[in-house]
């Protein structure tokens, strides 16, 4: 249920951003924007929020969201809406807007959706942090009781 709620929030954010930007720069229809929002939400949720965010943290997840959103909007706009001079500008604006809003969403994901155990294990595996114990070993079998002469 946590993932369904998170997907609904992410879909709402993506839909609002795409509807706001693609209707200004391009002549996109509601159905095209809806379909693009579904695809971008699904791909970004699996790659960015479930894979990158727990393992690498907020910054790399935001960078990945920017690249993924920009490339996805550019490719899908070229495919569904057509080529035009404003596709790159619209893609960059949508990518930046999605990244800014996703930064707040990442906090929600870490606090409410992702397991803290999964996050901690992934964090320690990433850094390869290992602990070693260093001690001097005494051979307890060869110890003699001290005599009074010593």
Automatic annotation (TrEMBL):
Pfam families: DUF2512. Keywords: Membrane, Transmembrane, Transmembrane helix. The chain crosses the membrane at residues 7-27, 33-52, 59-81, 87-108. The keyword Transmembrane helix applies. It comes from the Bacteria. InterPro entries: DUF2512. This is YndM family protein. It comes from Oceanobacillus longus.
